[in-house]
Design a protein that fits this description.
- It is a single chain.
- The chain has two domains: 178 residues, Sandwich (Immunoglobulin-like); 107 residues, Immunoglobulin-like.
- A hairpin with a 5-residue loop joins β15 and β16.
- It is mainly β.
- Keywords: Signal.
Length: 293
Amino acid sequence: MVSPARLALALTALMAALPGAVPARADSAPMVSSEDISSPWTAPSGTAVRLLAGPRDGEIVTGGVQIRLGAGWKTYWRYPGDSGVPPHFDWSGSDNVTGVEILWPAPVRFDDGGSFSIGYKKDVTLPFRVTPRDPGKPVDLRLTLDFAVCAKICQPATAEVTLVLPAGGAPTTPPALAAALSTVPQLATFGAGGATALETADLGPAPAGEHGQTIRVVARVANPDTADLFVEGPSEDWALPLPAREPGPDGQTVFHLPVEGVPKGADIAATRLRFTLVDGTRAVEVDAPLSAR
């Protein structure tokens, strides 16, 4: 979640960037079968976007937003980190839709040169779950996607795509959608155990010589040299920094971050935070308040 001030600065930088069109690469397109139900690709500069239908899950119809990136380009996660703009989904033109839930594949951290952002460096499919108003009828999806793509510079992009999802869903799960779903973090709780797990998250005083408070998160991971953690507040007013990583006792990995980017008047000790732990091909997500240290 990015603060309004940071969002304004990022948007100003995006609008000032040179367009530098980068053609979408045909060889970067995910493999699809003849049974896939999809919209035509749009082609904003530096990227291409389309909608993909998935199978039905009870009364829910599934699908995905496919974003194709040019070589060397990247785009942002729901929380973009120190800089950048999160994607914005406008489904308001859709028909027979009560709600759309986006499922976010595990992201990566990347260095923007003096700051760090969070997102995707390769083509990505963002799965979604649609709740139809009438489950017996097709869903007419109309999406306006506002997002940012970056190479050496960043630029804004807008894609408008439409797709009718059959009432019964697609006959199979497209490979690109299946691959994306496999990397969506699994919901968990603190102390649940496993090779990739979040043990504790507590709030305490900063180390000697520093001011304020710090958040300390203890995790168990299979890849301690590359595992990463992202911590989010409950709204876009929150802009918590990215944590540092260090070895912990008994094979644990410890992440710590200063308490910064908290909205004025908010009590972090009484707020539920979202913790996303990414460990190679595995990822878990915990939504919980901090404990006292």
